[in-house]
Design a protein that fits this description.
Zincin-like, alpha/beta, single chain, four-stranded mixed sheet, 6 helices, 25% strand, 2 domains
Length: 232
């Protein structure tokens, strides 16, 4: 069942009221409706709750999307907030990873590689993909804000999603953003770049973000609900 741009799985059961559940890790939406409730009534209810559904779906998608500790085939890993089933392929050469289908991410690792080695390979793939995204991302937000950074980079950070060295005009993005929804990456890029205009988190800074990214508070809330893992 499609309600505007939101896909809902509808089930009919012997229940008295319509219930909506948003399931982790991918934010799948499941609605359970009484057997005789007209579809028009179901749609009206879902339309009324659509803002709540979107908000909670994004919160669930952003929640701790880390690769499973074992890094075994069948585990769930994330790329830009979307879950993928991990498929580990052992081979001596050509280590790396690739998206092999709509729901599968293949990881190529040496025979006998342990979980830490496999995670390092996946992180390397994340880093490469983020670096590919940076040029268009930087161009977009530098044009919107009218400022330019001298350098953009990606690194693992334990407590911050991004940093901006104002004097060097250097911006770092957290590697963990590879696992979060694309809206979060956009927000962090705009946020850090805005510091080249306003150093502090004051009303002027917030006004800058309001002008170029009106929904920035939603992305900030999603990131705050699942901060970078300190054990990374």
């Amino acid at each position: 069942l499609l309600v505007e741009d939101v896909e809902v799985t509808l089930r009919r059961r012997e229940v008295r009221t319509l219930r909506v559940v948003i399931r982790p890790p991918d934010g799948r939406i499941l609605a359970t409706a009484p057997l005789l409730m007209p579809e028009t009534a179901v749609r009206a209810f879902l339309s009324e709750k659509l803002s709540w559904i979107r908000r909670h779906r994004e919160s669930i998608r952003a929640r701790e999307p880390r690769a499973a500790a074992d890094m075994e085939s069948g585990d769930t890993v994330f790329w830009l907030g979307r879950p993928y089933r991990l498929s580990v392929r052992e081979r001596g050469r050509g280590i790396g990873a690739r998206i092999a289908g709509p729901d599968t991410l293949e990881l190529y690792a040496p025979p006998g590689a342990d979980a830490a080695r496999r995670r390092k390979i996946l992180d390397g793939w994340y880093r490469d993909r983020l670096k590919e995204l940076i040029p268009p991302l930087a161009a977009k937000w530098e044009a919107a804000l009218g400022v330019r950074a001298a350098e953009w980079g990606v690194k693992r950070m334990k407590t911050r999603w991004g940093t901006c060295n104002i004097r060097a005009r250097r911006i770092w993005l957290n590697l963990e953003l590879a696992t979060r929804p694309a809206e979060c990456l956009e927000y962090v890029a705009a946020h850090e770049l805005a510091h080249l205009i306003e150093r502090n988190h004051n009303p002027r800074f917030h006004g800058i973000l309001d002008r170029v990214l009106p929904d920035w508070r939603k992305a900030r809330a999603a990131l705050r609900s699942a901060p970078p893992p300190r054990s990374a």
